[in-house]
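Protocol step 4 of 5: obtain the predicted structure for the target chain.
Materials: sequence only (see below). No template structures provided, no constraints applied. The aim of this step is simply to have a reference model before the mutagenesis design in step 5. Sequence pasted as it appears in the construct record:
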Amino acid sequence: LILPADLPLITREDIESMLDRMHSPPVVVVAPDRHHRGTNALMVSPAGLIEYQYGDNSFENHCKLAREAGARLEI
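Step 4 output (structure tokens):
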């Protein structure tokens, strides 16, 4: 689970919801920022399945990489 340190509104329920989606790998769970450009949370199973992206367009890039890897994509 990759989470930036600047998410003051994230709740336990948010994290549990992401964890609940991790069954039946390969799977990539990604939470976009409010503009749907950056990534606010990322879970990948198996770890290292895709290359992790940072900065502008990381959300779109994570989605593209998940599809290319044949992983189930959960948003």
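Step 4 remarks: The CA atoms of residues 42 and 48 lie 12 Å apart. The first strand starts at residue 27 and ends at 32.
Proceed to step 5.
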